[in-house]
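$ ./design --mode recover --in tokens.txt
reading tokens...
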């Protein structure tokens, strides 16, 4: 599938670049930290994933060559914000309190966060208070919405933290947690591509009610260099149709937003 997919991504990339001849100069390098978070950022997909391909194209339009350095999320954030080797990190969810730490790029698309569970659990919810009876798997240092995170800090919700989304899915299959918080497209991508989950993954369902939605950005270091890179990058990003690029990328991965994602049954959704 990827062999068929690469020419399409390259054609989108080249069409964008050719509209801006100065982009070929590649006057500087945009050095960013990130994590393996398929299909948004990953070394296993063309352009390093959907969000990374948008970053690369926008940077190229501004005469920047992009270098992405992969780390566990905690280190990606720390090094992206503090190391002189880097300009920032991505994909950073926009949070008001993060404005004191970095300069945000324009939007690179949205992340829709929801809940996955085993079908036998018959998980359902309407308000966050309904979650109090469940043991919930989260990923360490991921934001999951202002109200949800506040309830976690106040110990109103029982959560068990994992280092990654795939770890959470494995914990779910092992029944160490009853429900997990996960991005909708990450959920779908991992169930398609990660064979370590085994045939039992067919028992995992995704609830149709979303928990929250975040806009994704580059978090540039809050210094003169970071501000300069932000302004240059945003100039290229403004030339792109981000939503169109996102839709086309997901369609080529057979994650089409125009088709039903879930088979609905008794308030639940089966992959």
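writing sequence...
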């Amino acid at each position: 599938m990827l062999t068929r997919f690469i020419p399409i991504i390259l054609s989108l990339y080249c069409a964008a670049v050719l509209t801006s001849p100065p982009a070929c100069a590649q006057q500087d390098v945009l050095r960013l930290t990130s994590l393996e978070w398929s299909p948004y950022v990953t070394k296993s997909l063309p352009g390093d994933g959907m969000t990374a391909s948008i970053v690369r194209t926008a940077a190229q339009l501004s005469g920047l060559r992009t270098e992405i350095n992969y780390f566990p999320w905690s280190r990606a954030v720390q090094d992206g914000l503090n190391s002189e080797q880097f300009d920032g990190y991505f994909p950073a969810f926009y949070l008001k309190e993060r404005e004191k730490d970095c300069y945000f790029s324009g939007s690179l698309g949205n992340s829709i966060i929801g809940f996955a569970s085993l079908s036998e659990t018959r998980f359902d919810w309407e308000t966050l208070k309904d979650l109090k009876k469940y043991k919930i798997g989260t990923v360490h240092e991921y934001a999951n919405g202002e109200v949800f995170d506040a309830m976690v800090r106040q110990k109103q919700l029982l959560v068990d933290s994992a280092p990654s989304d795939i770890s959470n899915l494995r914990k779910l299959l092992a029944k160490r947690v009853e429900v997990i918080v996960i991005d909708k497209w990450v959920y779908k991508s991992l169930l398609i591509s990660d064979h370590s989950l085994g045939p039992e993954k067919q028992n995992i369902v995704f609830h149709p009610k979303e928990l929250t939605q975040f806009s994704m950005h580059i978090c540039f270091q809050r210094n003169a260099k970071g501000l300069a890179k932000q302004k240059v990058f945003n100039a290229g990003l403004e030339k792109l149709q981000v939503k169109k690029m996102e839709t086309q990328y997901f369609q080529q991965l057979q994650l089409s937003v125009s088709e039903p994602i879930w088979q609905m049954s008794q308030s639940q959704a089966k992959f």
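exit 0
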